């Protein structure tokens, strides 16, 4: 008799929904205003000379750690295929803009 009373509960337990997956992490906030300057990617590094940027800025050649989320960081590099005698100041391009 007891088993008959528990049978509906056991059947309903099999219909329980699976737990919800953890929420996806949100995209990092644009704490430094990099989104507004994303159009500079691909431009010569000298394009920065014509920009008025009123916040902390750094230029990075190569890899670097992001340590200050409020700082605007421009990653610059010389594209492959650039002539070796090209002046670095004119050959370098902005390859990424981010915070850190």
What features would you describe in this structure?
The protein starts with a helix and ends with a strand. Helix content is 16%, strand content 18%. The chain has two helices and three strands. It is rod-shaped.
Radius of gyration: 27 Å
Poorly predicted parts? none
Helix percent reads 10-25%
- What is the count of β-strands? 3
As for the number of domains, it is 1
Architecture per CATH nomenclature, i.e. the level-2 architecture: 2-Layer Sandwich
Strand order of the largest sheet: 1-2-3
CATH topology type: Trypsin Inhibitor V, Chain A
Strand content: 15-25%
Shape: rod-shaped
Give the tags:
100 residues, alpha+beta, Trypsin Inhibitor V, Chain A, 18% strand
How is the topology of this model organized?
Elements: H1 2-13, E1 57-61, E2 72-77, H2 88-91, E3 93-99
Parallel strand pairs: 1-2
Antiparallel strand pairs: 2-3
């Amino acid at each position: 008799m007891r088993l008959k009373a528990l049978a509906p509960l056991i059947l309903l337990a099999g219909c329980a929904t699976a737990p919800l997956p953890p929420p996806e992490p949100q995209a990092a906030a644009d704490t430094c205003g990099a989104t507004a300057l994303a159009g500079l990617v691909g431009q010569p590094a000298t394009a920065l000379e014509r920009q008025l940027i009123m916040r902390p800025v750094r230029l990075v050649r190569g890899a670097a750690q992001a340590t200050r989320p409020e700082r605007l960081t421009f990653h610059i590099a010389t594209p492959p295929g650039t002539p070796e005698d090209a002046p670095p100041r004119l050959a370098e391009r902005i390859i990424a803009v981010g915070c850190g």
